[in-house]
Write a structure and sequence with these properties.
Chain lengths: 322, 322
Amino acid sequence: MKDIGGLMVPTFDDVLAAHARVAPYIHRTPVLTSSFLNELTGAELFFKCENFQKAGAFKVRGACNAVFGLTDEMAAKGVATHSSGNHALSLSYAAGRRGIPCHVVMPRTAPQAKKDAVLGYGGQITECEPSTSSREAVFAEVQARTGAEFVHPYNDPRVIAGQGTCSRELLEQVDGLDAVIAPIGGGGMISGTCLTLSTLAPGVEVFAAEPLNADDAARSFRAGKIIADDAPETVADGLKVPLKDLTWHFVKAHVTDVLTATEDQIVEAMKLIWKRMKIVMEPSSAVPLASILANRDRFKGRRVGVIVTGGNVDLDRLPWMK
Amino acid sequence: MKDIGGLMVPTFDDVLAAHARVAPYIHRTPVLTSSFLNELTGAELFFKCENFQKAGAFKVRGACNAVFGLTDEMAAKGVATHSSGNHALSLSYAAGRRGIPCHVVMPRTAPQAKKDAVLGYGGQITECEPSTSSREAVFAEVQARTGAEFVHPYNDPRVIAGQGTCSRELLEQVDGLDAVIAPIGGGGMISGTCLTLSTLAPGVEVFAAEPLNADDAARSFRAGKIIADDAPETVADGLKVPLKDLTWHFVKAHVTDVLTATEDQIVEAMKLIWKRMKIVMEPSSAVPLASILANRDRFKGRRVGVIVTGGNVDLDRLPWMK
């Protein structure tokens, strides 16, 4: 960790420490390929399948790093967070493994599948309205009442260091990558990816993929400063949250470009992956393939790592079933 | 191959020859586990994921063995078959790889996803009514017209030897199995499984799993002779076909038991696997888990290989979306 103008920024040593700390609690997820999708895109795609991860998403990496890095004294009061879904259940999973309480503030509109999963892992839910402002207000109340340690879903150096373990595995699993693409919401996965790649493989480009309907990261990237929307609407419900100072630090310094995809392109890419790769993943995880298909020239002939961020989808409400 | 009272029965040497022949055209599919499903069943389950196989199903093993074993002269006239789906597209895939024609007779009621896939692999479809009798009549006409080599979906020693390669891989991937369970329709996969296990691991039990709505194999097993139904109705559309003499030879000699599951149990097991393992597989492939859940005492505390036979499902018509 280093202090950059008051911002506590994780270093690659923190990623290494995180990897050793979380290894007993996470999967080393497989990398899958599809000859059909390679032909369709003209690229060689390597899908890092965090949909197979514990708790169904990459977020368990950062959550476990935060939870298992606490002193016993801090851990005793539990942890707390606000999240649109996967961080909530990942933190609940991590807290459960350590045997401490986990308090979660979730939008009342979050998919029932995610609420059930949080409860299933032993998390305690307090609902808020589906806006960033309401979420933060309700959370302040919960934290004041419990004294639990706040683990932010992404703007937290412990969380970013944890997410950085994903692309460390990817580099061990695939040789000669030209680029890595991951979805961007708050930017935790992208920041961890930047952190690891800029150290281990600085020649590999990092692309962030975002729904056009929630393109605050793309607009921030072009404007050179954080632009945040309150409550954008997209099928990729994991990507509605805005960048924050720590993730912006990584995005502005290391990301090659932020690409966007329309809602139709996202749903089509999701269905294509389900149909051809036979894996269940959530709409957010389809945004990278949708963005590749919408920007084929950027990826043609290149070896591209694609982070499939999670698989927690409500099977009763699939986006192509209207 | 050995002649047993006029029946040409494949031997384990045929499995070895098949494996060498098909290896360039198939995937060595992964084995996945789920701590949730282990806890739920009380067994240790090892899912052999043929849903990730080329053409989306194990049937490509047998189809490739048949196609690539033909002389150039025989191959020139192409191949032909009737199939409720996966064999059709597997044979189309195999024929396409060899560059020869593939003629397919399919029930007009087969899922559109499977028809599209056959056409996508270059197969030529002739439709029949959804009954065994109609299927066989239409097929005779097609074969007479084309002179193509008939590759039966399961009652063919080349096909059974090909399917036997699946459990050969499984034994290399998982140590100390107590049992293997696979769906049974016509019995091709079960026969190949019996052939391989009876040679390499004779102590491993083989269970066949069948929809209660199409339980001709279970009734045959108990009666000691083949009982066939015409056009049974089940969500597990790959399992409607009856046993034939060659598959019955293996079932009666090597299968420990034939277990059944109701339609509701099959759909519930399918959804459970999608939700927890994040893999897309078809209803037929859920019958083994449904049967394990309906017969927990038979599997408790045991290490069980579960063949996930295929992943070709119509995403617009999932069985839990009424």
